[in-house]
Amino acid sequence: MPEGDTVWLTAHRLDQALTGEVVTTCEFRLPQLATSDLTGMAVTEVLARGKHILIRLDSELTLHSHLRMDGSWYLTRSGHPARRYPDHMIRVLLGNDSWLATGYRLHDVQLVRRSDEDRFVGHLGPDLLGPDWDRVEAVRRLQSHPDDSIGDALLDQRNLAGIGNMYKSEALFMERINPWTPVNAVATIDQLVNTAFRLLRANRDHPEQSTTGLPGRGQAHWVYERAGQPCRVCRAVIRRELQGDPARQRSTYWCPRCQPEGA
Q1: Which of 1, 35, 123, 127 is the most buried (most CB within 10 A)?
Q2: In sequence order, what are the residues at sequence separation of 6 or more whose Cβ sits closer than 8 angstroms to the Cβ of residue 148?
């Protein structure tokens, strides 16, 4: 699933291309929206809320979408072919005189009144990349589930919105915390949240995601997707294991020496 900074950058680019412009092209290739038409309406704002994208219009309607694992929005100049993926993957075409936004393999696409946006995002915790970011509230929500493992708690978007598998693994490594440590045993949880915030903010304005400060291929991450390779700090072998509820397990990467049990 895309990390919060990827979703933020997607929304930011859509906002630059669509906001303030009247919709001249609108096509929904989804049964529930097949007869909907937004042409003649103006886009007033595009924003990310956690991993959700909200396209707001002057009609007080909001087009909601979620990227999940494989969705994307792709911008092309109007009049140019919208061909990043095969046509059968297109779910939404939304454009103006200058730009065409094409939504590929989007999920949870709904057209709702702006007052009903909470149906999709009302449950989310403070957004690490949002204007309403509240570190104190995020820490409070994490600590309200003291028996959860810290790895699972960081991925729970009800606690704080925007952290995905990569930032979970990287932030825990940087703070030398074992991913299976119960929340109530993490003494530096405030510092952990600050580290996650700093990483997402540092990466939000560009598609490359680096936590090491090195942009080169194979150098950008401390532990993420490096199972079987030596730790960059201690040379122990990085491990990977599934973590979480059996129905929604995610891969966790960690260094057993830098992040021992009980750490």
Answers
A1: 127
A2: 156, 182, 183
